[in-house]
Amino acid sequence: MHVLVAPGKFKTTVKASALADAIARGLKRAMPSLETTLMPLPSSGLGSMDIMVRALGGRVRREQVLGPFGRAAEARWAMLPGHIAWIDAAEVVGLGLKTPHRDATRASSRALGELFQKVLRYQPECCYMTLGDTIVNDGGIGFLETFQVHFYDDQENLIAPGTAGLERLAHIDFSDLVPPPIPVFGLYPYPYPASGESGATLQFGIEKGVPEFRIPLVDAAMQRYGEMLEAHVSMPLTSMPGAGAGGALGLALGFLGAQLTPAVATVAQLLHLEQRIASCDWVVTLDEHVDKLTAHGVAGEVARCAQSVDRPVVVLTEGIGSGYEFLYDFSVLGIYPWIDRPRTPKEAGRSTTTLVEQASFRAGMWMRGMNL
């Protein structure tokens, strides 16, 4: 039997590659003669670039930028085969940086724009930019500043960084705008809009350090800002799927003419996931939580690709929420939570790879029985 092991990462604490190794160990305990192919999948967050370089080749480069709080930082990016640039926003304005705290009221996305401008010196054919795991919520204002867009308050002063400046935004000067000279693809994890109940601020503002009492004010400011951008390009930007990704970095990318695409589906195409599944007998994947949003995640994409080539899928997960049943309409035959008994989040987090290995063993024993 040949199994494709294709997990996503677990939150920002365990890499997809480490989980792939744990799954393979568990499966081989159940079936010692098993052949496995490991294919960890990025989901638009931290570590996506490393997976793509490992899978496709290429070179990781480093640039010096000023981080989200104005401190000097080293940012990584990659040049993939075909002269394709790859940037993880989390490496520049997110959880990839060692910041002392999370404070989206002051955090700027300007560093991402600075990195992009430096990448252009290498003359890439196009650029893929993942938008997950960021700590900014400024709507990409800092990012757009590096394209010579200027943002002013009602006193005609340049606004401050972060959501503090976003709230005071009154006027945008587009006269010096220099659009990107290459195609840009913004890869979003979930199709959230820029504002509203499913928007960037209401979904993730508190975890990024926006005070709870300011959430409605920041969301209203994001809506006004989006309307200013829409008026300039005559396009409905704020409601575009993925516009809210990266603290509404997706909104800024959409304004610049970038194509916003679902991250996992895009990566699956680049890595020829469907063909790789077709060459195996089973697929084992992993998503940190299985619910209705899984349709946009690793497990959902794996299930869709597996159905196309008629291969069975097993999903490992930490927990199951409402709406997970749709997976059974594809090629999913089993869903295995890896939490084996009541555990505190801290305890479960410390033991993730061990628990995943044990769950993989149990799934492997079931798979072995299915193939008798």
Helices and strands, with pairings:
Blueprint: E1 2-7, H1 16-30, E2 35-38, H2 48-56, E3 59-66, E4 72-80, E5 84-88, H3 89-93, H4 110-119, E6 126-130, H5 141-145, E7 150-152, H6 162-168, E8 171-173, E9 184-188, H7 200-204, H8 215-233, H9 245-255, E10 259-262, H10 263-270, H11 273-278, E11 282-290, H12 298-308, E12 313-320, E13 332-337, H13 345-350, H14 352-370
Parallel strand pairs: 1-2, 1-11, 5-6, 6-9, 9-10, 11-12, 12-13
Antiparallel strand pairs: 3-4, 4-5, 7-8
Helix pairs in contact: 1-14, 6-8, 8-9
Structure description:
The protein is of the alpha/beta class and 372 residues long. The protein contains 14 helices and 13 strands. The chain folds into two domains: 140 residues, Rossmann fold, CATH 3.40.50; 217 residues, Alpha-Beta Complex (Glycerate kinase, domain 2). The chain is 37% helix and 20% strand. Strands 3-4-5-6-9-10 form a six-stranded mixed beta sheet, sandwiched between helices. The chain has a five-stranded parallel beta sheet with strand order 2-1-11-12-13, sandwiched between helices. A two-stranded antiparallel sheet has the order 7-8.
